[in-house]
Amino acid sequence: MSADDQQFLDLLSSIPNQIRRYSGDVADYVDKAVDKVADNVRDVLSTSEWVPEYMRPTLPARPPPVEIVPMSTLDRLQDWISRHKILTGIIVAGAGYATYRTVRHGKLLRKARRAKRARNGGRLEVVVIAGSPSLPLTKSLSLDMERKGFIVYIVCNTIDDEVIVQSLSRPDIKPLGIDITDPPSAGSSIERFATYLQTPHAAVPRAKAGFLSLKAVILIPSLNYQTSPIATIPPSSFADLFNTHLLHPILTIQSFLPLLTSRITPYGEKSATPKVLVFTPSIISSINPPFHAPEATVCSALSAFTEVLMAELRPLAIPVTHIQLGTFDFTGFTPIRSNPEMLPAAEARQWPESARLAYGKNYVNQSASVISAGRIRGLRGSSLRDLHNAVFDVIDGSEQSDVVRIGLGAGLYGFVGRWAPRGLVSWMMGIRKVHELSTWESSYTGSGSEKSGSENGEASEFIPVAKEDEVVHGVHNVWK
User: Fold this and answer.
1) Sorting pLDDT into bands at 50, 70 and 90, what band is 374?
2) Count of other CB atoms within 10 angstroms of residue 23
3) What gap in Å lies between CA 321 and CA 394, rounded to an integer?
4) Cα–Cα dist 320/8, whole Å
5) What per-residue confidence (pLDDT) applies to 335?
6) Per-residue pLDDT at 337
7) How many CB atoms lie within 10 A of CB 67?
8) For residue range 143-194, what is the model confidence (pLDDT) as tens digits?
9) What is the C-alpha radius of gyration for the chain, rounded to an integer number of angstroms?
10) Given this model, what pLDDT does residue 40 score?
11) Residue 204: helix, strand or coil by DSSP?
């Protein structure tokens, strides 16, 4: 049998199957049509008046109509959650974190913060604050520590600093004279202070004498810095800045290291490990904006120094905590200035023409932005009570983090500095591209005049940025 014959036989064998399928489809269609016609006829006859009652067909029982019930609020909420699972998870996580922070903040506010005292009521714990007594932060922190039961010593470099401390009129806030610029004298002062701690003291006459314990050394560098383009800051101003704002805080900690790393409590007495707290402004150093080179440089260097100090003292079980400060409300501690500060536009007009064309417009725009000189414009800042509570929590050991961010903007700008693009931050601060620059003019007039100008230090391309009080009094306070 050929292939064509086999194909023809296969075709003939498939015809009955196709006929059966098509006939079944036609029969199903006819049945449905007949059933529909029968239903229609039955409905018509059952409702017609001319058909006798006994001849009317009986309608089959129909299912009850579906009742539409409106969804309740809970049902709609469950339906929304089922359709937005990711967003629901984010909302739950945010609400949980906010609840945790609120509960924790409430507990911290209700916490009783008092220094330990002797049975006769005498003070036993000492805190050393290494910061200028004229700084508002030093004044507020010393008064709060004294109010909580500590004996507070403020490091003083000059007689004027001691006068400021004595003007606080608090018997337990005392000056601690240490000349950081003279290492032998500073070492002698530290030795006298250690001897004082090793000597038993009585709160009142004929009472049991007890030993004082050093609880913490708090370093508070300057919180105020000059803002200016790098090109307008002379090298001598940078040298003075690093000497007064960076070197002296480092030397202060270095002077206290022998005291911190030694056991000064007599044997048989309970010893306490002192803590080191280093304060630095964090808003400017987090984002490093233009025209803030002094503050950004000094604060970044102090942060690096604190990390190294932390690594060196960790094996000795001496905690070092870096307190990164935001903006605070110093109302009541900041004196009213009789001479208002120079406006940025007026300050820019004193620059050389080349610097004014290159930086003047952006400097004025940046000074009018939300962040200017380390402050958040339009906001008063956090309460100093938050800072005082955080410092006490670090001293008593309830806060054991290496870095504590406190104050308005400290955490936010730390996040912005880590993740936000630098160009976007500069644009938001008003920095724009400069299209017009000054023409280069050579100031070379000969070897003799150049030598004379360099010797006299009268280079016209630099202007000093020293503070007004330093110029008036003629002295440099190492903390200001």
Assistant:
1) low
2) 10
3) 8
4) 98
5) 62
6) 56
7) 5
8) 999 999 999 999 998 899 999 999 988 989 999 999 888 888 989 999 999 8
9) 41
10) 81
11) coil
Count CA within 13 A, CB hemisphere, residue 270.
4
| DSSP-H helix ranges across 48-72 | none
Higher-confidence position of 227 and 436: 227
Q: Is 441 helix (H, G, I), strand (E, B) or coil?
A: coil
∠ CA 332-339-289 to the nearest 5 degrees? 80
Q: Which two tokens stand for residue 399?
A: 């806060």
Please, are residues 218 and 395 in contact by the beta-carbon 8 Å criterion? no
Record the pTM: 0.72
Over 70: is that where the pLDDT of 436 sits?
yes
**Contact (Cβ atoms closer than 8 angstroms) between residue 175 and residue 154:** yes
Q: For residue 245, what is the DSSP state? A: I
Is the Cβ–Cβ distance between 345 and 300 less than 8 Å?
no
> Nearest to residue 323, comparing CAs of 280, 373, 377?
280
Decide: helix, strand or coil at residue 77. Answer: helix
- DSSP character string of 7-46: HHHHHHHHHHHHHHHHHHHHHHHHHHHHHHHHHHHHHHHH
CA 189 from centre of chain: 37
Sheet holding 403-406, edge to edge: 173-177, 151-156, 125-130, 213-219, 275-281, 320-325, 403-406
pLDDT in tens, 324-357: 998 888 887 766 554 556 677 777 778 888 888 8
Do strands 371-372 and 375-376 pair parallel, antiparallel, or not at all (unpaired)?
antiparallel
* Angle formed by the axes of helices 73-83 and 85-110, nearest 10°: 110
Task: Determine the Cα–Cα distance for residues 156 and 130; give it in Å rounded to an integer.
Answer: 8
| 227 phi, psi to nearest 5 deg | -110, 130
Q: Per DSSP, what are the bridge partners of residue 404?
A: 323
Note the pLDDT tens digit of each residue in 386-409.
899 999 999 988 888 999 999 888
Q: Using CA atoms, how far apart are residues 148 and 389, in angstroms rounded to an integer?
A: 11
